[in-house]
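[audit] Reproducing an earlier prediction to check determinism. Same input, same settings, fresh worker. If the tokens differ from the archived copy the diff job will pick it up downstream; this log only records the rerun itself.
[audit] input (397 residues):
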Amino acid sequence: MSTPDDLHLPDFALQGLGTRPFGVYVHVPFCATRCGYCDFNTYTAGELGSGAAPEDWLEGLRKELDLAAQRLGRPPAADTVFVGGGTPSLLGADGLAAVLDAVRQSFGLAADAEVTTESNPESTSPELFAGIRDAGYTRVSLGMQSAAPHVLRVLDRTHTPGRPVAAAAEARAAGFDHVNLDLIYGTPGERTEDLQASLDAVLEAGVDHVSAYALIVEDGTALARRVRKGEIPMPDDDVLAADYELLDAMLEKAGLRWYEVSNWAASEQARCRHNLGYWLGGDWWGAGPGAHSHVGGVRWWNVKHPARYTATLADAALPVGGQESLTAEDRHLERVMLELRLADGLPLDALDDDGAREARRAAADGLLSTRDLDGGRAVLTDRGRLLADAVVRRLVS
């Protein structure tokens, strides 16, 4: 395990810097309440006490970004910035503007940079959207999860069912062309008509991007404890598959097409470029408590607790909690795992001979497109998307 500020970036990692997409991820660790399904590195005010205020975090963030630019030498301007959490919208327009200013001052922004912030609908307003649009944000991602009140209660979500749609309209009115709504499907107690109603609300909102994720019961969460006690059942795999097919059919009919297994966009311009950077092996610096970074085959992650994060940076040291250099085998596995999830698929020549043979077998089983395989790419079929992880295992085993 590494100790703070022993980050080692070898020459091979830095040599290609700037030839690959380069993004900056900023982790905001603050939440008003904790959702029962969430295992992200987030903290409520009661959990933090007075030991780590947002002002301290922001000062630490500025120091980390300055140290990051120094450590990278002459880093490229950021092609994309993604502010996630946590609940970034709790910072308000001024706080989010200060975050982007810190990135701009340390790294600079490409002329056509995509700048995204996640937001909880309950902590947004027309004034917030107008303020962050003026500050330079180009994309907003809103956590909706469901339009059904009883589903939101199971997830411990506090927003009212209609608020995400209203927030999306406010964001568009403020000048945002690109607005995303997040859904979670497969929550115990969610009926088909509940999911249909959620999708109807999404389509009514007129957004150009939708992310939809199957509910996963993560160890250590309140949801996992409820499942363990028998209060609610585990999500059912057959229900999850049927939900996914319904999602895909309704979104496709409305003109939103999948470009990654869990993401749909109305156009190529609406796709999330920052996440595409992850999926296509780009470089990024992850700033903030617990954030992960990757440059040229070297991955590292920050210490998790905000108080330790800020204290480390107060000593002018990077808050590195650990790092690893990916082996050729690691990088191959990750490339197959990530690129295969994309609608464009994976070049067949990225597979070894055994993988290529297995790809042909997967096509015969209806999991990969035969036509695309003949054209030199491994592309998941509709059925293959439901079994994407299993297909990856076949191609790399």
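[audit] rerun output stored. Observation attached for the diff report: Residues 54-72 form the longest helix (19 residues).
[audit] end
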